[in-house]
Amino acid sequence: MEINEETSYLIGLFQTDGNIYESSRNRGKAVIELSIKDEDIIEKIKKLIPYNYTITKRIRNIKLNGHSYENKEYVSIRICDINFRKFLNDSGVPFGKKSKIISPPLHLKNLSMPDYIRGLYDGDGSLGMTGKNIPYVSIVTASKNLANFLLDYISSITGKPRKKNNPNKRDNIYNIVITKEDAIKFCDEVYYDGCLSMGRKKEKSEIVKSWKRPPKMKNVIRDEFKFWTKDKDNIILNNPIKKSMEILNKSKGSIQMRLIRLKNNFLY
Fold first, then answer.
1. What are phi and psi of 35, to 5 degrees?
2. Tens of pLDDT along 59-91?
3. 8 φ, ψ to 5°?
């Protein structure tokens, strides 16, 4: 399988909502199980997989609020071919439990950043409107590496300073949230027209994009948000990353993300 826009999305989705299992004699399986309301994406991604697969549905008894239970229907796709499992593993999807150790597969030469990130958000993200009619995009992750990567990416598309990477104290989980115009910029780039995505989340992204700031809502725009310039781009294009970090006083992740965006013409 080649790395392109669609497989970049597939990698992100498997990193969040999928699992790879292995056992003796090269046996194993790759599985994604989703709520039946997202069955459409199973039908879409099965066309990308050039190996035998099985699609099944089941009812699960889900515990709610620690007291009551509710029967919910789920749909899953299972691929047992070793070549597909190897493709996923080589592309950054670990075997077994992975929530704390997944990292962005920046070693993949043709990785499409917006598509990979959309796979992550279709898996573990949320977007839409708050109760106060404010657009938002959020994601929850236990992976420090993934949190750092997403914070760098968000900073690069919004032009704002990178937020601090602080997990919550209760369970050490990172909850990354952006709102208003930042959420719109994110959806414009990640949930672009014609992209492969869950229908439910693509619809919500269109709602986010349609938001207009109310006339009475103050909008603070700071000049220091507009960090990257042609001169600063030339510095990172003509110097080693470590030297660029010293000159610009920026993190390694921020420099790497800007280089990726320059290379792929993903600029704001």
1. -60, 145
2. 987 776 666 667 889 999 999 999 999 999 999
3. -60, -40
